[in-house]
Amino acid sequence: MSLLKTQVLVIGAGITGAGIARDLALRGVQCILVEKADINSGASGANHGLLHSGARYVRNDPLAATECREECVLLKKLASQCIEDTGGLFVAVAGDDENHIADFPDLCSRSGIAVEPLDIKKALEIEPVLSEKLIAAYSVGDASIDPFRLTLENIAHALEFGGRLLLHTSVVGFKKTNGRIQVVILQDQKTGKEVLVEADQVVNATGAWAGEIAALAGGHIDLLYSKGSLLITHHRIAQRVINRLRPSSDADILVPSGTVSILGTTSVQIDTPDNVRPTVAEIDYIIETASAMVPALQTTRYIRAYAGVRPLAGSKSLDNGRALSRGFFLIDHLGDKLENFVSIVGGKLTTYRLMAERTSDLICSRLAITAPCMTRTQPLPARSACKWTQPGLAARIWMQRQNSTDAMLCECEMVSKSTVDAVIESIHNQKATPDLRAVGRRSRVGKGTCQGAFCSIRILAHMLELGELDSDQGLRDLKRFLSSRWKGMRPILWDAALVQEQLQEAVHCGLFGLELQKDISDR
Amino acid sequence: MTELEPVTYDVCTIGAGMSGMAAALFAANRGLRVALIGWGGEIIFTSGLLDLMAVHPVREMKTWRDPWACIGALVRDNPLHPFARLKRADILAGFEELLDFLEKAGVPYRRRLQRNSEVPTTLGAVKLTYCVPQTMWHGVAAMAGKKPCLLVDIQGLKGFSVFQIAAALETRWPQLRPVRISFPGRFHCGEVYPERLARALELESTRKDFARAVRPHLNGAQFVGLPPILGISRSLKIATDMENLIGVPIFEIPGTVPSVPGLRLKEAFEQFLPPRGVRVFSQLQVMKLSRDDNRRFVLETGRFSAERFIRSKAVILATGRFIGGGLRADRKQIRETLLGLPVYQPNSRNRWHREDFFDPLGHPINQAGLEIDDFFRPLDNNGAPAFQALFAAGSILAHQDWMRMKCGSGLAIATAYAAVNSLLKL
């Protein structure tokens, strides 16, 4: 059993935890970031990848709208490597509420959000996929953001300042005396070993799992879970973010993301945040609904679906904690008689930096540290190890290098051996163990047409040759990787995607009989 | 411009996978005037191994060494499986006729009549199968006897790693020694492709150079395992020659697509079916299938639009399932693509696949397909044969999951055999 000491322990390596770790690091605060799975395993890895201009919230949530507006402008400047500044449209089609449309520009300007009306002809000209039944269109400053790279960059920057990252490590207990957490008990998920951490302050940034962690510490957060499902198209449908101009509802946003587009979402209340999956019914509903706005969504090919969980803070925590906005909540847990525990819940990808700033402000005031927040002015440095999630980048670099011995391991997304090597190195730098899923999370591997069916075998062999995997680990890792990709394939298997799946099953089951490998248990 | 094929065929086989090829062969061997129409790509997906039957019940993941006993158990439990309409003697006769053809076409197979054999694959998983290409046969004995064996990899060859194979088989076959060498000639840098290596080895000089590169690594190995690259059309001769040059028995290790063994089968069929009287239209697909006033089938065929009309008295649908294009799914349902025949299928898309990809039960969609009568004629909505002279064979048939049961080739060959014999009877 080992004992670590630090000023702050941040629990949860999604974008919020990563942002807090960086913010604290820049203020000179010592920090350990602990994560039970891998980076972005919760909602940070399962969202729309949308940097909101704020326009979506002008009617129901003006405070969130203002926060989004400010953060959107800031992040475009400070984290530009993670952002494609696509611009966005709000569009309405025949049958949509005309009053809602008429109010929109006014509401935007009240929140200080730049909006420009477009005539129908012009809108159809710049985005020809829009429905011919278009009746209104406005241009706003929405953009597309890569949440994986954003988290990786935040973590990389924090680590440069001496921060520490513990992946695949769960919080299993808290030792308290007189309302003060003395020791946090962690457990390494791979070895089962316990690690103790003595921290002055503990931050709970676990998103949908915040209630569970708070309860473990003896605190309370009232959370509701809302599942959102999304779809990834086979190619990029539109150049801009396209929002349906109507009261926020299901399936009304289409976000471009590199070579694909992401369509969503739904909102379904669920009982537990674990093991969420998109369902066939949700996927059909999304397609039917969204095709009113973009008819091509009815016939286009999809390569994947996924689902994330929005943690929504319920009423009890509002009494208990300190409501900062309707978007996110910083809970000080003093009401739970916990003096060195803080939870940050809710919010949006767009406002992650602000959430990190507010949380770090509270932590620093408790530690009597006066250093100001730096993330509002200091750009997020672009680190080469974090870049591989960008679509098309690995391919471009491979072309430029013209090194014919650098074999292409993933042909759909053109990820070469040298790129996989770089990704593996970055995993080691995070003190984590490389496996297929970890490589996939940090690169484009498994994200193309074949969804990892063929490249997984090649990358597995390559990792084995590098000595990254134990010999008995290979087939087990392959099964796990394919099982995890399956969740997102199952609801979209018709037409060409079904043919692709049949080919995968013919190889992995028909030929190799992976389903029969009884000695390979799926843990 | 469209043209009308001047002859009326006795039977047209649609589909150029194993079932279509086999059906064309069986029909030609029985003196029928046969046309085979297919896009021609499907068969290259095969590993070269011919399964008969190995797993039942799939939910128990029970594997069988005796394929015939496995079929017996299967048809007792599942009387709707196409095998339930076949006699063992017919399945056996179908295999013999096909294997005889393949042997004469330069692609000889080995098998034990009563037993499945265990074959090492490129993933290191062990495959239980019925017929093994001669070029892979030594692998069966080498693995069974845990013989000291050298596994040879080629620099730049993808989808094949002897290190993966040796690692996965470590406990079962400890005396496997992986090595990677450069292929002789201008293959020393960059990616190399199995088909090019196979064609290169058709030259004696390349074989000599390759053997020279392998020999220093032998160090007492009694067998040498290789990727499937031992030539396309003369694989047996090349394998024998290589064995003499290297000095120990060698074997190929079957693996993923696109595969050289698949190319061998494709070339064997395309080259040796025409001399048997089969008219092969390998780059055409059937756009539309209808009937003329004389109740003969009319096939509108072409590459992208109708180019050629072909008339035939009978048709065997061997169009496969989704990969072959015989079935197609939209978001709501599964359809048969040529005639809109009724397709047995789960009643909603939510039931097509299970939550877990590796669920031992298999996915219900893989039981979808055409239901047939005892003559292998697809049924219409009333349960009667849709047409007097329309037959179906291979994976398009319902009530079988060849991927989980490991019965793909057996199903293709045996049902093609049955369909052709039914056609003669009716």
What does this structure look like?
The complex is a heterodimer of chains A (523) and B (426). Chain A has 15 helices and 23 strands. Chain A has helices at 15-26, 62-78, 98-110, 120-126, 147-160, 210-216, 280-290, 315-320, 352-367, 393-401, 417-429, 436-441, 455-465, 474-489, 495-511, and strands spanning 2-11, 31-34, 50-51, 83-84, 88-93, 116-118, 134-140, 143-145, 164-166, 169-177, 180-188, 194-204, 223-233, 241-244, 253-257, 260-264, 268-270, 302-313, 322-323, 328-331, 341-346, 408-410, 415-416. Residues 316-325 of chain A have low confidence and may be disordered. In chain A, the strands form four sheets. In chain A, strands 1, 2, 9, 10, 11, 12, 19, 20 and 21 form a nine-stranded mixed beta sheet that branches. By secondary structure, chain B is α/β, with parallel strands linked by helices. Chain B folds into two domains: 3-106 and 263-425, FAD/NAD(P)-binding domain, CATH 3.50.50.60; 122-254, Rossmann fold. Chain B contains eleven helices and 17 strands. In chain B, the strands form five sheets. In chain B, strands 1, 2, 11, 12, 13, 14 and 17 form a seven-stranded mixed beta sheet that branches. In chain B, strands 8-7-9-10 form a four-stranded parallel beta sheet, sandwiched between helices. The radius of gyration of chain B is 22 Å and the shape is globular. The mean pLDDT of chain B is 94. Chains A and B meet through α7, α13, α14 and α15 of A and β5, α5 and α10 of B.
